[in-house]
Every structure is written in C-alpha cells, then in structure tokens.
C-alpha cells in the first residue's frame, strides 16, 4: 500500500512534446448528461481538456448538447436521437429527452476512434431490473419505460469487446449493479466491466456493486476497494476522505482534498480528469492516480482563496491548471 506523493505524481505526468498536435493528446468520448444534469456533461468535458486532452466529444441528447455549446466553445458535441414511443404501453412513460438505443449505431465510429470512453456522468439511467424484463425490443430484447436504461444497455453490449479505457461513473455504476446481481435473461450474453476499465464509486455505489453493507465498506475501505477490483476485473477509485485506488494488486491512498470537494459536480470533474489523462496514453491505473491527486490538490488550492465553504465544482476547472503547475514546479 502506497500513499501518493507530489514527487510520484510528477514522475507519471505525461510529456508535452513541442512537435505535438491535438491528436497527440488523444480523443475523449464523453457520454454524459441528461435533462436534469446538464452541468455534469459540462464539468466532465471541460475537466478532461483542463488536464491536457487534445479533443473532447460530448455525446448526449440534443438539449444537453445545446446547453453545453452555449457555455463553452471548447467541446465538440454529438447530439444523439431521442427515443420515440413505439407501442401503446410505452406512450404514457416516454421521456422525449431519453436517448434512443439506436443511437449506438451512430456512435460506432466515435467509439472506435476514441482514445478513452467516459460513461455515466449525469446520464440519469435510474431504472430497476424488474422494468428491464417487462417489454421486448428488437435491438436487445429489452425496452424500458423511461430514462436512458435502454440506450445504456445497448451501449454496454456494443463496447463489450472494446480495448480502449472505459470509465464508468455515477448512474452507470448503479445500472451495472442491477445487471451484475439480477441478470435480465439467461439467454443474453453476460454484461461485465470492459477490459482496461475504471470505476469511480462513492461508498454507497460500491456497496451496491458488491452487495455489501455500506458501513462495512467504510470500515474497511482498502480491503473492499481491492476486493472489488479483483472480483470485477477493473480499477477501482473508491471516493471519500483518503480516496483509495486499486487494480487488485496495487493500492494507492490519496492524501489531498478537503470538505470543499463535498459538493455536487465535483465527482464529474474527477471523472473528466481521469479520462483526460487516459486520452494522453497514461495507463488507466496511473491516470486514476493523477486524476485523484490533482483533483484533491485543486480543491485545496481553491479553498485557500475561496474557503472550504465557497468552492463550487465549476471553480475547480480554474484550479486544475494551478494544481498541475504546483506538481511541475516541485520537479525542478
């Protein structure tokens, strides 16, 4: 077990060669946001750019893409088609802001081109597994009354053989918990986290994934982070005070951060940061270490000027570069 240090973080920062161009630093495909969580799409996209990613594409519903485009010119948007009611039973449940499962076909080229795929920040999946069993669908045998569950299931099926890093956050983790513990059909291929994946659960999300009481998780954070990494074949970033990072073999404890980070949206910033480092060719484990340490350091630097009370998730975007400078200067 190792505690992350300024010197170690400096040693794993990706280089910035003078003869580089935007594609040198990779492409992030960020599948994020929903009608009530547009800010999550903005925060996770911008934070990936703030750590040095060369190109970020946000794939989301048209309204989310429009909202993010209105806030920043830095993110490329890919509006995905909304679901349409296809049968009478579906009409009263349909949410026109939900993404159609057929949108996965539109995403295929982007999924192949991306250096890293980030899924879940503000995506608002939120469906129970019993709903997954209710209605047939021509794409995957499922139809879900509302939310983005149907789209997410189609996306999971599409990326099962993917070898690029994939980051699962927020509601993507809750939906995965349902699939892992309550398979929808024995006839369907089992769904699992993809190779080179990273998950970013808070304790409650990890308790759902492992089907373990959250108090036990909190009492033995290192043990359960490592256990989850082994059982789920993924890299675990267990958020909280002294965030734990584990691939099942190595364990890192993060010393940075404070209560300024205990606000809505800061987790979306972290997810984007990890994705941004993955895009630059950093290994998933090191990308998780970089993202977590610098995220905490940015929170500390922001709190020094704004207080731990006053820091917003959006403020972190301005302090990420300052945190990186702090690390770079420590190496001289």
TrEMBL record:
Pfam families according to UniProt: Carb_kinase
Known catalytic reactions: (6S)-NADHX + ADP = AMP + phosphate + NADH + H(+); (6S)-NADPHX + ADP = AMP + phosphate + NADPH + H(+)
EC number annotated for this UniProt entry: 4.2.1.136
UniProt: (6S)-NADPHX binding residues: 40, 122, 202, 268
Organism superkingdom: Bacteria
Amino acids binding AMP: 239-243, 267
UniProt keywords, alphabetically: ATP-binding, Lyase, NAD, NADP, Nucleotide-binding
Record domain YjeF C-terminal: where: 5-327
Molecular-function annotations in GO: ADP-dependent NAD(P)H-hydrate dehydratase activity; ATP binding; NAD(P)HX epimerase activity
Listed Gene3D superfamilies: 3.40.1190.20
Keyword Kinase carried by entry: no
Protein's name according to its UniProt entry: ADP-dependent (S)-NAD(P)H-hydrate dehydratase
Source species: Shewanella psychromarinicola
């Amino acid at each position: 077990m190792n505690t992350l240090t300024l010197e170690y973080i400096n040693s794993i920062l990706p280089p910035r060669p003078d003869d580089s161009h935007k594609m040198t630093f990779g492409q992030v495909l960020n599948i994020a946001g929903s009608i009530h969580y547009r800010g999550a799409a903005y925060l996770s996209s911008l934070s990936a750019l703030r750590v040095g990613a060369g190109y970020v594409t946000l794939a989301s519903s048209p309204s989310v893409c429009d909202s993010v485009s209105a806030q920043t010119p830095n993110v490329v948007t890919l509006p995905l088609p909304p679901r349409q009611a296809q049968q009478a039973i579906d009409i009263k449940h349909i949410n026109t802001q939900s993404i159609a499962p057929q949108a996965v076909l539109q995403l295929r080229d982007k999924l192949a081109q991306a250096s890293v795929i980030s899924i879940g920040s503000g995506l608002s999946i939120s469906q129970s597994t019993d709903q997954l069993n209710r209605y047939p669908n021509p794409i995957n045998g499922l139809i879900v009354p509302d939310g983005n569950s149907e789209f997410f299931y189609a996306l999971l099926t599409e990326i099962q053989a993917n070898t690029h890093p994939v980051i699962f956050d927020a509601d993507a983790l809750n939906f995965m918990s349902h699939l892992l513990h309550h398979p929808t059909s024995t006839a369907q291929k089992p769904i699992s986290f993809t190779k080179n994946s990273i998950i970013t659960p808070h304790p409650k999300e990890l308790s759902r994934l492992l089907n373990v009481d959250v108090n036990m998780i909190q009492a033995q954070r290192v043990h359960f982070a490592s256990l989850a990494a082994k059982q789920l074949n993924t890299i675990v970033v267990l958020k909280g005070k002294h965030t734990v990072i584990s691939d099942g073999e190595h364990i890192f404890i993060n010393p940075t951060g404070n209560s300024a980070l205990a606000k809505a949206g800061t987790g979306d910033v972290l997810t984007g940061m990890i994705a941004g480092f993955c895009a630059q060719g950093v290994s998933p484990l090191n990308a998780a270490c970089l993202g977590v340490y610098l995220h905490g350091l940015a929170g500390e630097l922001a709190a020094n000027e704004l207080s731990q009370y006053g820091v917003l998730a959006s403020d972190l975007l301005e302090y990420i570069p300052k945190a990186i400078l702090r690390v770079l200067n420590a190496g001289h």
